[in-house]
Every structure is written in structure tokens, then in C-alpha cells.
Amino acid sequence: MSIVNDKSCSWINDLSSRANIKILSQDKHCDWLIIGAGYTGLSAARKLGELHPNKEIILVDAQQAGEGASSRNSGYLVDTTLREGFASNKDLENFKKKANIYELGIQVVKKFIKEHQVDCDWNECGKFYASSNNKDESILKNFSETLTKLGFEHNFFSNSELKKRLGTSFYNIALHTKGGILLHPGKLVRAMIDTLPENVQLFENTSLLKWEATNDKVKCYFKNGTIHSQKIIFATNGFLKSLGIKKNYNFPLTLTASMTRSLSNEEFKSIGEPKEWGVLSVRQMGATIRMTKDKRILIRNTAEVHNPLKMTKMDLDKRSFKQKIGIKKRFPQLPDDIIQSSWSGIVSRSRNSSQIFEKIDTNVFVAGCYNGSGIGVGTLFGEQIAIKASNESSNEIDIIERREKPTWLPPQPFLNLGVRVRLMFERIRSESDL
Ligand SMILES: Cc1cc2nc3c(=O)[nH]c(=O)nc-3n(C[C@H](O)[C@H](O)[C@H](O)COP(=O)(O)OP(=O)(O)OC[C@H]3O[C@@H](n4cnc5c(N)ncnc54)[C@H](O)[C@@H]3O)c2cc1C
User: In angstroms, rounded to a whole number, what is the distance separating the alpha carbons of residues 341 and 385?
Assistant: First the structure.
């Protein structure tokens, strides 16, 4: 399997290129092997390095470390995700358990950036759930009731207030949650690479082709060698299913996003010079849209079942066109040709939006499936799966293990068919806010 990514993600292009990329070229033995070097794998490696300073730890990625979804996302470190209301107290209880995990995720990222003095454009400006459709007020009111019950600070915004705050009159109603954070995802993941402990060896452009677990070892096959390890952690998120891991409990989705160049001073003035903000859609498939601190606009308005290994230039161009329209609808005064880059990324989803965190065989551990909210949770799960795999315990593990577990998915072709129909339905429901 080779992962071929577009080379045009603005977040990645903002960073300096890295030297000393090592590719696996011979057989190796180690104590710990981690597959996947995004937030999850890098955090697992960092924690294992701390816990076992004298052990050999190898971290492998099929592409350059951090260049998967971890630097291709929209940069919302979330405290909550929108729910339209609950059928029972059990649902409310599950929402609370999830919010507890998000809170731990925020804390762990905060701790990391403080300890390593990371500049990742951290902004505790909260996030908006906004809609152009007044009918969505009832959804937001239900959500507000939940937030009030659980003690999350939030406010409602009207069209005129939103125009001032966001620089667009597109939205009619919004709920702002105070607790969300906006950041530069590429800078965050790069810092995780730069601060890997010394006893972690990183091999990049090294794709795991096949693996087998015997009683006391795991053997992994790559193009130019094998790695024998005592224990393995899978941190491949959107690629868990293609490696045969928890394949009846998670599936990949491809998201695409575009980013404009920085607006000129005149362009920025024409939209009222708003401060940095982030909007998530009230409708599931509506656009995520963000104004960055350096006056760029990011938009994501697609989620699809797509071959996860490759998106062609033509496929990407089609999606970029939809994003251009999404920006134009909100900011008609801006020029047509301001999109600087478009890219795709793969996430992992489960049926009930729950995450995977478990031991799946004697020496085999897995963390992933963050349902599109993996900045904080990925960082948290990476560290905690390392602790769990070291046979140690923590309060965080207790909280993580209290969550609802992912539920079973039907086999192919029913799964893809079901997901496609659901996405199509959600897209129609979200049409006005794409
Ligand atoms: C467009 C987009 C917007 C998003 N927005 C947000 C957001 O605003 N907030 C948020 O919290 N989350 C968001 N997400 C989700 C978030 O990016 C992911 O949840 C997070 O990156 C997961 O981190 P990870 O380390 O588990 O996985 P990844 O970052 O996907 O890392 C997995 C790594 O595994 C590697 N790999 C896969 N297969 C193999 C193999 N066979 N051999 C070796 N290596 C392999 C991949 O190359 C990849 O680098 C978004 C995602 C996308 C794509």
C-alpha cells in the first residue's frame, strides 16, 4: 500500500521542510513498534520514551510523519460537539462521558505546548455553531439546554451580531461555546516530531504491508525489511480498516478542504476586519469555515466514501470549486481567485461516533477512530494507550474506558451503500449551508 497525497496543503506548506528523513532499509528488532506518526502515534512514542528510556522504540509512517490528517485538519480543538437533543438520560450520560474525554484532550495538548514552548497559533476564542436557516434555532436551543445542564458556558448570536463578529451576513443564528480552541494543526504536529525522545527511531515513507502476531512477538513486513517487536501500537486512524484492525467497527471517510491566500488589507477592510474565528455548521454536512489569525479563510464542506489512498488532481479540483462557491456565498465582495490550496485527508468513523482504545491481542494495542475530532483526543489516546500497553493504570484510562464502545457495522457492500445514502441525505439537509 502506498499513500499518495496531494502536495498542496497550506498548513504543511507553512512549515520548513524537514531533513534526515530515514526510510527502513534492513531488518530490525525492537521492544515497541508504533505504526502511524500523527498525533496518536507521536504521542504514544513520546510517552513510551518517557516510561522506558532504555528500551528500543520504533515509529513508522507510510508518508512523512505528521503529513496525514494531523496536519490537514481544520484546527478546532473541541470541548463539545453538537447534539440535537437526547432521547434518554443514558444519551445525556454518554454525551457527558464524551465531553470529559474532550476536556482531557484539551488539557494534554495544553500541557504539551507549555512544556515544549510550542507556538501553534493557540487561540482560546471558542467556536460558533452557525446556520443561515432560522429553522435551526430549535436545534441550537436543544443543544443549549444540554450545555446548560452540563455547565458549559455559551451564548446566542443574531444575524447583526454575527455580521460584526464574522464579517459576513450569511448566518442568521449561532451558538458560541466558550471552551473551544483554534490552532495551527501543522505547527502542533511538527512540534511533536521535533521533540521525540532520543530512544525513538523514526522511519518515514515506510509503509506497513502485512503483520502477524505470534504468542510473544509481532512481525511486520515492509518493502525493504521486517521489524520484529515485543509489542505493537496501531495509530493509523483512517487506515485501521485497511490493515484489518477492528474492521467491523470503523470505516474511513475522505474530507477535503481549501484555504485562501492572506486577504489584502483592502479585502480585509471590506469584510470589517474581524478577529480570528471558527464556525462549525449546525447541519452535519454543512461547511466548517474559519478565519485564521493571518487573514486566511479555510473551508471544508465535503465528506465522502472515497478511495482513501489517493485523490486525483481532477477530483480535488471539483471539490475545490465547491469550496470556492462556499466562500463566495459568504463573502461576495472578495475576488474569485483567492484559493491558494486544496487538499484531502482521511478520518475514521464509527457508527455511534465512539472512539477505539483497546488491546486487541496479547501484544497488540490500538487507538483511533476519532470521528473527525482527533486533535485533543488523538494526543490523549496516544499517551494513554502507551500507558495501558505498559500495564500501568491512570485516571485518564478509567475515564476513557467508561465511554460508550463503537457498535458493530454491517459488512461490505452494505456498509458503503448505507454510508453513501446517509451522506447524501445529510448533504441535502445541509444544502443551504454548504
Ligand atoms: C479536512 C479535515 C479536517 C479535520 N478537522 C478537524 C478539526 O478541526 N478538529 C479535530 O479535532 N480533528 C479534525 N480532523 C480529524 C483529525 O485530523 C484526526 O482525527 C487526527 O489527525 C487523527 O490523528 P491520528 O494520529 O490518529 O491519525 P493521522 O493523522 O491520520 O495519522 C495516521 C498516520 O498513519 C499512517 N499510516 C496509515 N497506514 C499506514 C501503514 N500501512 N504503514 C505506515 N503508516 C501508515 C498515515 O500515513 C498517517 O500519517 C479533521 C480531519 C480532516 C481530514
Answer: 35
